[in-house]
Design a protein that fits this description.
mainly alpha; elongated
């Protein structure tokens, strides 16, 4: 079900999935800040929307980090 270490290594070398994580982190932080501001302002619909967007960014960032971690394991195992 999960991709193999070799697949993760290939993905991380092509960098199609893992482009520039600072943009993803910036989007995640902005969404969570807006969520907190809208919660204090009483705007529950905006808090739900930006909370869901922040959660989406967090999920994508976690998957990208997992792929890089698995790719690192594959390269360490094959070194003589």
């Amino acid at each position: 079900m999960f991709p193999s270490q070799e697949t993760c290594k290939r993905w991380s070398q092509k960098r199609k999935f893992i482009r520039q994580p600072f943009r993803m982190v910036a989007g995640m932080v902005i969404c969570f800040v807006v969520t907190l501001i809208s919660l204090f302002d009483g705007q529950m619909a905006a808090a739900k929307l930006f909370g869901a967007l922040g959660g989406f960014f967090f999920t994508i960032y976690a998957v990208a980090n997992w792929i890089v971690w698995r790719a690192g394991e594959a390269s360490e195992e094959r070194r003589p």
